[in-house]
Protein 1
Amino acid sequence: MKKVSIPLSALLLTCVASQLVCLQAYAADPAPEKGSVPARKAAGIRAASKQKAASLPKEDETVIVTGTRDPHQTVRKSASPIQVVTSAEISRTGQSDLRDALTQLTPSLTRAPLLIGNANMVDVLRLRGLSPNHTLILVDGKRRHATSVLSNNSGPQQGSNGVDIDMIPISAIDHVEILQDGAAALYGSDAVAGVINIILKHRKSGITMQATNGGRYAGDGFQSGESINAGFDLMGRGFFDLSAEYKYQDHTIRNSADSRNGKYDFKDEGDPRQQRGTISYNMQYDFLPDLSLYSFSTYGHRYGESYQDARVASSEWPMYPNGFSPKESVSEDDYSVTLGLKGEKFGWNWDLSTTYGSDHTSMDLFNTVNPSLYAATGASPTSFHEMAFTNTQWTNDFGIHRSFHTPIFAGPINLAMGAQYRYDEFDIMSGDANSYYGTGPQGLHGLSPQNASESNRDVTAGYVELSMRPLKNWQVDFAGRYEYYTDAGDTKTGKVSTRYDFNKYFALRGTISNGFSAPSLLQEHWSNLSVAPTYATGYLPVNSAGARLIGAKPLHPEHTMSYSAGFTLDPLPRLHISVDAYQITIKNRILAAGVYNGANAIEALRLDGFTVPSTLQSNAVTASYYANAADTRTRGLDVTARYETRFRDWGKIDWDVALNLNETDLTHTGKDGNGNSLLNSQQAAYITSYTPKNKLIFGGTWQYKKLGVSVHEVRYGHATSSLTYYEGPLAYSNTDFMRYVNKARFETNLAVSYQVLPQLGLTLGGNNVGNAKQRRIPKEFRYLGAFQYDYQIEQLGYNGGYYYLQANLNF
């Protein structure tokens, strides 16, 4: 297996240069250390940060823990681009989902307006236009487990199973640190596009409650979210922070009329109905000044229902004389628990922890019928247990770090090293016998025992990190990591970051790193068959007999190279600007690929235990798998600016602007075992043109005594669809598609808050107050006339305006 690593010559050259120049440097004062240290040291860090922050937005001088193990690194002085999103900013969006809140605040984050199929209720994010699998999610610095459901519907997220971040209560979150830089050398696989680190609250007292209720401009989609957070002091030796949350969301329906009968019987282009309850705790207890026990945990349960395509009346299901719309239901249980000890010994800070996380999803189908069963027996149930999945992850970490002070460096040398062991397991469980009998129920074919599987792997890793300040204004960071997967082999990754502050106004920074992303167990073993009224789509495990028939080859890891260069600018006392350009290349990128239709697809599905309805045209049946399909190159630019305007007696306004420019190109497309291209033009478009080329967020928040007003404009750049023909000679073509440009769109978000009492605050707000929507696609490309929007485009959605009232209580 090919190993990718940073050239040693580059590392050695940088080290030698730093040694030569630091002979003229002076020693810095002893710097405070982070972790389980005496309170006076921690107070020193806070005092220093507070003094520096006198003329800057508070979040710019926040001490960060993501992308560095330097105990006094701040946002403003970071060698890598990082954004801190506070709980107050999240609250001002009016969203009860963390995913939706972050996409309103961070332009490099995007999401699909709708995921049809198994992943309909999974809330994942894409960073810099890459797959959700390329963004690592941490909770208080610990790796979070991924969802058990693969996104198998077509579009940019196809083939991914990222972390469902909405299984973490928003009320438990203190802030979110978003590292927009490759960090595989720091954290391992998946940190290709960047890292989202969710930092939990650690309150010792007080109770906070929030209630948010709202709905759509169209009169549907009612949402209600209630949460509570409480902090408790543990006898002066620590804290226990407890959070609980409940959310209800009703359906939205945006379908147009069914071309078969002129009725509005389709209801699946819209949000599903779901209920979600989550609870979490975060605690720490200090046995000694240099020994602490800590633990945090989350549990979430979700139940949801989503419509499937409408069926018209037929002799195959006489029990539904007026036709019917199948409904898919999802019951999901997700939990994670972390337990650890940390302390200080012989000047070294150490941290030993174990984290176990699991996501279990059970899928059922009701209000439907199995035509094969009805034809054979004269009866059929109307509800079926289709399948179930469980994805677990057990991670064990041990790390140490220390700061060394030398007379030849202008600052301390920060050294960190550690080891990690992880055990991954993914199980697929079959449905009931009626769900996979014959052609299966209308809507979704159940999984049979032939499709069931149990898979697992071990992952071991070791890392070392070094940060230093050879000169007063020059910072250099190194990181190296070795990682071994029992199913994907080993790799060596490295990262070098540097920053030079020319003066207090201007600084340059840059990074070069390589990365590694192993295939997920879901990508290796996933299978399913979705059946619409006039077509069927199947996905087969890459190592199965059916997949091999249509050219599948075993999956290999992705290898990446990342480059970034940028600058920070502070031209005025309360103005901070950062600009960072980046390039990310991915070799052997894993995508849904190898699409076959017709007789080959039908035979491949049969070999894997799926029976296709004989009423479907053969060219309307497709089968594919997940493959190392292509090499890609993503280039972009991130720009952020913050400024504070003070009006003396009239309060102040915090202005902010954030821009992301992003474009992905295919540099190579592979071929399958039969010599055919692994990607057609539509699949290529999913990763090159379905994400907006740019996204701009700008606005401000005015605070005057008890009144607060926040106004932000979001501009989504154009994105280009590749639409399937459903009528005419090109109907269901696997090679010819319609190019359709979704023009740039704007949305306006507004919130007005008033502190009625010291304990009570009210907010009236709206997201997309102008009720803007994406463009409708031409009628000839609407499936059965009913799907009037391209729900795969990750631009402005089609649900329209959302308006809400929020109440906050603090005791």
Protein 2
Amino acid sequence: MVFAAPGEALARAEEVLGDRPAPLHASVAHQVIGIWQRDFGDMRLALSHLRRARAWAARADSAEREADVLATLGVALVHAGRTRQGLDALRRGVERGTGHTRARVLFRRAYSWWVLGHHREALEDVRRAIPVLRQADDVIWTARALTLRATVHLALGAVERADADFTAAETLWDTTGQEHDKADAVESRGLAAFRSGDVPAALRLLDEAEERYGKLGTPTFMLNIRRCEVLMAAGLAAEALAEADAAIRALDGIGGQSTRKAELLLAAARAARLADEPQTAIARAALAVRLFAGQRRTWWETHARLVLIGARHAAGRGSGRLVADAAAVAEKLVALGAPAAPEASLLAGRIALDLGWTADAERHLAVAARSRRGGPPLARMTGWAAQALRAQAAGSARGVLEACRRGLDVLDDHRMTLGASELRARATAQGAELAALAQQASLVSGGPRQLLVWSERWRATALSAPPTRPPADPALLSGMTAYREIAARAEEARMEGKPVPALEREQRRLEREIRSRTLHMRGEAPDGGDRFDVGRLLARLRDGGDGQLVELAVLDGRVQVLLCGRDRVRRFEAGLLAAAETEAEHVQAGLRRLAHPGADSRLPVVEAAGRRLEELLLGPAAAHLGDGPVVIVPPGRLHRVPWALLPSLRERVLSVSPSASSWLRAKETAPPRGGRQVLVRGPGLATGGAEVSVLAGRYGGATVLEYEDATVPRVLTELDGAALAHIAAHGAFRADGPLFSSLRMTDGPLIVHDFERLDRSPYRIILSCCDTARFATVGADELLGLVTALLPLGTAGVVACSAPVNDAAVVPLMLALHEGLDTGLSLAQALRDARASLPADALHRATGWAFTAFGAA
């Protein structure tokens, strides 16, 4: 019962002990309590009860009972870090038991071998156990043994063998009532899905397993470890670190298994390394190494050493000793049959390259490069990264570019299996190094055109295809409705000055649930989208009247300006990216001040900052922009720059795009038939959304949604397929969860996840509210936010705001913008003319600068 209904089993065992049982029954009861404490509670209590169970078994004079207890005790001692004692107890259990009992003991010793990382010994013991368990028609223990064998196969990279065993075990579990074991089987299938490269399925199965464990009230430390692995592969390293650290605290709180603590520390170290927190990674990995060494777990200790070496390298501690350590770890991983061996060789090669040891680097990188030919996507990526570094060291730009192309193709295929736009964006971080290597190689050997191609190759790729539409999942839809209601109640309570901690807790819970369900979606796109073509871009710019596109690439911290137009691509070197980011923050602070009347004295300061920004971002290219329209394609880290503030851009038709490819798609997007207009007015605006009433008169047949009609379901219905939408509503950007950035409607927030449910978002959309053009920068060079959610869904042009603005000053800007649209102008043209029509005071000028036209409509 202890794995079918753990709480009930514990209560029954304690009841048995309260009735002065016979020695045999006392032994069973103490063993059950020991198992419960071992897996779900305090290891000290577990060992105490299991020793008493062994003593009662000896009194009962039952060799079979004693063998069974010795096996359970052996597993507990191994989990407590007392490896030698644990293996000794298991050996004596095997010697004491016979037949069926002995097979169960062999299974538990196999499990212990797996915990210790001795996979060959684990396979040998489980191989001996399974036929006997099958012959005895022991369904439960046969299913456990098959699950264990599958898990060992996974550790050794034999995914197909693991799948066969998991399938056989699941068939057996369906005939039993072992709820904990069933949850474990679902968890194991999640691990198998992850090993085969299916991240969404892995996340879905692990969430399902957690739900099952939750019903049983049992801790989920192994699941935490596995989910950390999947989260890291999905680019969610910070979340993996938070999950691992929280699980460590919970484990320490109950005095749980030392083995699990070491594994959680290793997961935390890996996550910290990926989250660019090398000091945290060093601390967690060093402690994991000590624990694994004390537990005599060579497999695990070696993996922890790999993470520790990588973290030390990331912290700038390169040395010959570190090269030797990485090489030794690589050799040991090969001997252990661990799939991580190429990663260690790549690390040794990297450190050697940093030291200028080219011969050593070539030796290690050549070994790592072998993995590019097969295995899961991220393993092949490791191989191609090694091959690219080999080519770079050999001075072969062509070899670098070929390796980078092949590696990024692998990551493209992996990325497009992910349905959620967030996962697609974050997954690109794994290709950042290859993209940077290719840019450097193209800068040296290929000229501006090739640098443009490689800048585009890994920029805003999450926008290259629409995200998978969220499923018509009743639980997801009801969760979003509940979220909206709770958020609206919390906002109302805040406005009344009431405390809202309970509502905020429920809101966070619903956010986690919504996000979790969207991350389960698999991608539908068959490839990574259209490949970028420089000739096509130049032809489009020529057809548009000698406009120019300015793409900003960043190499070694410096901005490279690629000026595209007039049938050529030219390169100019500008300033340092870090200095530009600092100046952009100063400008944002200045715009916030200017949003309030009486701040006119700040205007010269902001304009001076705009001149400095132009020098840093455009440099000498500013003098070559000509007179036509300009499209700016900035890197993600510069998304908050108010481009209209730069002197050379202030009086011209200006639009911004996340990538040149995205601009081309927007340019080639046809408007929907019918020309339907939708005007939305949300609650709580200082002006009451005054422009909406005027616009309703201008667009006679427009759909106007305001007051009780401006609800999220109604707004979404009307927005779907509209030609033009104007939304006057309070905007809120969520840096901690960009896809929960929102526009406030009557019934609560309209969030980015809502927009992703549209079949086609409006062709043009104007967001006359604060912070709608703010984004979170993730992955290699990706942006998550409201505007970037709209662009892949059919929206060709957006006007949005990157700073807080004065509501009253927005009204004349918006009315002038629509006047321009009435005459057939594009959004960028109309916004330029609208700025020029405003009064020349600081308040109105700052309001105009805060708004940007995105896309090409």
